[in-house]
Design a protein that fits this description.
Number of helices: 22
Distance between the termini: 27 Å
Shape: globular
CATH superfamily of the largest domain: Phosphoenolpyruvate-binding domains
CATH architecture of the largest domain: Alpha-Beta Barrel
Helix content: 40-55%
Structural class: alpha/beta
Strand content: 5-15%
Mean pLDDT: 88
Length: 564
């Protein structure tokens, strides 16, 4: 078993990618100058390889290829290279020095209490493996021209591996480590390839050539299955393909209940390139465009022009449907080193998101100017994250007004129809949502953080993962309160957290009156199909009964029963 991160059934033979062994020769057989020259030549070659891979990846993955920028930067990291050159002075071979340096810094990052930084450890190890292979004269792992279809099994499937692989022959991914935010998971979902991660010892147990089957949704994996099991999974795979084909017939249909209640089913995206997937799966707009990709994996802030081009591309792609663009949500599990944010003992409750923007106003205003300039190319919604009270909304809107005035003075057109909304992800905002609703055009409920803050459960802490539940009655009561208060003030209410795509929860959220459901693009058509099978009046009648229940388990069980 592992963690299912990209749905689909995979059936095929395993191709196991092995890592470089750790028992590299420690003492140098050459002088220090020669080892430094070997290192310099290696750095130049690997950097060139990665730059070529970056170009190739952009053709396949679009903006997702920016993941590789972090790896190119590793080859220029002064702190890491100083450490490695110090090891050369101690008499280590270049390959052993690189291994020691990479492991030292990768372990530092891997042990941080920060999901984003833990994922950067994979970047360092990937580059280190590539450098060591070059120094040892070994062939680089190459998935570009596979001779037969296979399931890739690796300790951690690296971005460079994924970017260059032969997509036609890769049936699925299985890795020892990783979570839903790992590179493997993100790229698997982008490429729509079944994947499970976190198997712990998959590469130790599975051998190249072994037959295997797995379910990328449940995480169930069976090695060397019986003929009977193969028949069962083949039938599941066939059913899965038939379901996808059936769902495609709903692509151009509205999201409407049997009794005529129409809602919007939109997609969450991370880059303008993701609009292709959203449109492919029939999304009726973008309910959350995370803008962090513009700021990550670089050394300087993105310019106004760079941001403008990205926002313009997304608005044009999705027109005439709406694109809700969230302003910079940095901090918590997303670090941007060049901003110089201090290390905090509890970053999720610290200096992050709108709090950073309201203090570093020039950064915020640059983003708002870019958004407003782009607004004439589609239907734009601007959304502020991490709002806890009224003062923050008013401060943000004041900066927005300044940006509008500046653009007007410069003769730059701005759409008069830009909607301004806030994410409701902090309990205090939910409690005073009646007050906040008078200041904005819409709410979007961010359940990922709302659950975390309401239940005091760190969503990245595996020890208490079972306590993190969207079915908690306290969370659901807050959701209901936000929807009711939004509607009383005449504004629409959406949801952009993971719960919006939960098929067991969708009927309840519909009954509460949620107007917009925004989710991963691959979940859009399944949600639309479900909504089309529901009667709005019936789901409304469920709400008091469900919210009277005392535990998450009772609520989940009741919802599952109602859906059968």
């Amino acid at each position: 078993m592992g963690i299912g991160v990209s749905p689909g059934i995979a059936i095929g033979k395993a191709l196991v990618l092995k890592e470089i062994p750790s028992n590299l020769p420690k003492q140098s057989y050459h002088n220090n100058e020669e080892e430094n020259q070997r290192l310099d030549k290696c750095l130049s070659t690997v950097r060139h390889q990665l730059e070529n891979i970056r170009v190739e990846a952009e053709a396949k993955l679009g903006d997702m290829a920016q993941i590789l920028d972090a790896q190119i930067l590793v080859t220029q990291d002064e702190e890491l290279l100083t450490f490695v050159r110090g090891k050369l002075k101690e008499g280590l071979t270049a390959e052993a020095a690189v291994y020691d340096g990479v492991e030292f810094y990768a372990n530092l990052l891997a042990n941080m209490d920060n999901d984003y930084m833990r994922e950067r450890a994979a970047d360092i190890r990937d580059v280190g493996q590539r450098m060591i292979r070059h120094l040892l004269g070994l062939e680089q792992s190459n998935l570009t021209h596979l001779t037969e279809s296979c399931i890739i099994v690796a300790h951690d499937l690296t971005p460079s591996d994924t970017a260059t692989m032969d997509q036609e022959r890769v049936l699925g991914f299985v890795t020892d480590i990783g979570g839903r935010t790992s590179h493997t998971a993100i790229m698997a979902r982008t490429l729509e390839i079944p994947a499970i991660v976190g198997t712990v010892d998959g590469t130790s147990i599975i051998k190249t050539g072994d037959m295997m089957v797995f379910d990328g949704e449940s995480g169930e994996l069976i090695l060397n299955p019986s003929e009977e099991t193969l028949k069962v999974y083949s039938a599941k795979q066939k059913q899965d393909r038939e379901n996808k084909a059936r769902l495609q017939t709903l692509k151009e249909q509205p999201s409407m209940t049997l009794d005529g209640r129409k809602v919007i089913v939109a997609a969450n995206i991370g880059t303008p390139k993701d609009c292709e997937g959203a449109l492919k799966h029939g999304a009726e707009g973008v309910g959350l465009f995370r803008t962090e990709f513009l700021y990550l994996n670089r050394d300087t802030l993105p310019s106004e022009e760079e941001q403008f081009q990205a926002y313009k591309a997304a608005l044009e792609a999705m027109a005439p449907n709406s694109v809700i663009i969230r302003t910079l949500d940095v901090g918590g599990d997303k670090e941007i080193p060049y901003l110089g944010l201090a290390k905090e003992s509890n970053p999720f409750l610290g200096y992050r998101a709108i709090r950073v923007c309201l203090r570093q106003t020039e950064i915020f205003k640059t983003q708002l100017r870019a958004l407003l300039r782009a607004s004439v190319y589609g239907k734009l919604g601007i959304m502020y994250p991490m709002i806890s009270g009224l003062a923050e909304v008013r401060q943000a809107n004041a900066i927005l007004a300044v940006a509008k005035a500046e653009l007007a003075a410069e003769g730059i057109a701005v759409s008069p129809d830009v909607e301004v909304g806030i994410m409701i992800e902090i309990p205090s905002a939910a409690v005073i949502s009646d007050i906040l609703a008078k200041e904005v055009d819409f709410f979007s409920i961010g359940t990922n953080d709302l659950i975390q803050y309401t239940t005091a459960v760190d969503r990245l802490n595996e020890n208490i993962a079972s306590l993190y539940s969207p079915y908690h009655p306290g969370v659901l009561r807050l959701v209901q309160k936000v929807i009711e208060n939004g509607h009383k003030s005449g504004i629409w209410v959406g949801m952009c957290g993971e719960a919006a795509g939960d098929t067991a929860l969708i009927p309840l959220l519909l009954g509460m009156g949620l107007d917009e459901f925004s989710m991963s693009a691959i979940s859009v058509l399944k949600a639309r199909e479900l909504i089309g099978q529901l009667n709005y009046a019936e789901t409304q009648a469920w709400v008091p009964e469900i919210l009277a229940m005392g535990t998450a388990e009772e609520i989940k069980e009741a919802l599952l029963l109602k859906s059968t």
